[in-house]
Amino acid sequence: MAFNLLNWFLGFFSLDIGIDLGTANTLVHVSGKGIVINEPSYVAIDKRTREPYFVGKEAKAMVGRTPSNMIAVRPLRDGVISEFEITQEMLAYFIDKAHQQSIVPFPRPRVVVGIPSGVTEVEMRAVYDACALAGARETYLIEEPTASAIAAGLPVAEVGGSMIVDIGGGTTEVTVFSMGGVVTSRSLRVAGDELDQDILQYIKNKYNLLIGDRMAEEVKMRIGSAFPLPEEKTYAVRGRNLVSGLPETLELSSIEIREAIAGSVQTIIDTVKDTLDEVQPEIISDLMDIGICLSGGGGLLLGLAERLTEEVRIRAWVAEDPMTCVARGAGLVLEDFENLNHWLIRVDH
Questions:
Q1: Which tens digits make up the pLDDT trace of 231-246?
Q2: Domain for residue 349, yes or no?
Q3: Strands (DSSP E) along the chain, which ranges?
Q4: Report field, pTM of the whole predicted structure over 0.85
Q5: In this structure, is residue 243 part of a structural domain?
Q6: Is position 348 within any domain?
Q7: By CB count within 10 A, which of 191, 241, 285, 301 is most buried?
Q8: Same domain, 54 and 135
């Protein structure tokens, strides 16, 4: 009884937190403050003891540079937890960091976490348990496309249909909503990480140049595109020549990178087409009015909206600040809990 009373007291002063526990980045939204944390989902750990040294930005900066006793890891793969204890440590760090200005020394927040729509019950339980062990007083889960749609302002509760394509680091989620529910959804594990690997392999195969994951991601962000650009770009990459073993700098064009990622981009577009094939003509008519919303970091890929518009003949548009949509949507549910809590997934204790 005393513990429950203390838990309630600490919870009363703790914050409501929305979390996008992403494969590539973790974002934390605090009610009344907005996005307070946007850091890479990396943890630098001791190889032997597996104790964490650094979390987030500092850990990602160490990728490819760690000493022999340390390794930088991403504890999530394809949107789900692959390293439970490390994920728990990472969550605890971010929850504590979000509470640094709070008067509560041991925060017990109410948390809503975004999860991919295709996860299993075991994977859901892993996220729930990790949050509980990281200090959450109450934990709720919400499907990432739903959270994104709420943040993007889509009329998900209305009679008309609406559609979101949420492209994260590990998964792409395609969901159609109508009348406060999900009409149909698809989840595929082709997203930002896959585009990075496409670029890395293309450069390796064509130029015998080995580059790191961080360089591949940088290339994607700088000159990656899904549609011809008004003015094509170039970017210099550095790596190791696999023939000579020596360092080399190579100038790449956006045309080449578009070719490198073409297969994965087409897979995403084909999934959108397949999803549209499943919905009623009335919803197609609604979508022709409202368009298809792109969210997630992958929504920022240059020319993707134009490419999708051309291929499916429905206007595609990018949500405002697409990278933060899941975290903001999770936070909005907490701020209007009475009206939006029906979107939450509750995990049995």
A1: 999 999 999 999 999 9
A2: no
A3: 16-21, 25-30, 34-40, 43-46, 52-55, 70-73, 76-77, 80-81, 110-115, 138-143, 162-167, 172-178, 181-188, 209-210, 234-241, 247-253, 292-295, 316-318
A4: yes
A5: yes
A6: no
A7: 191
A8: yes
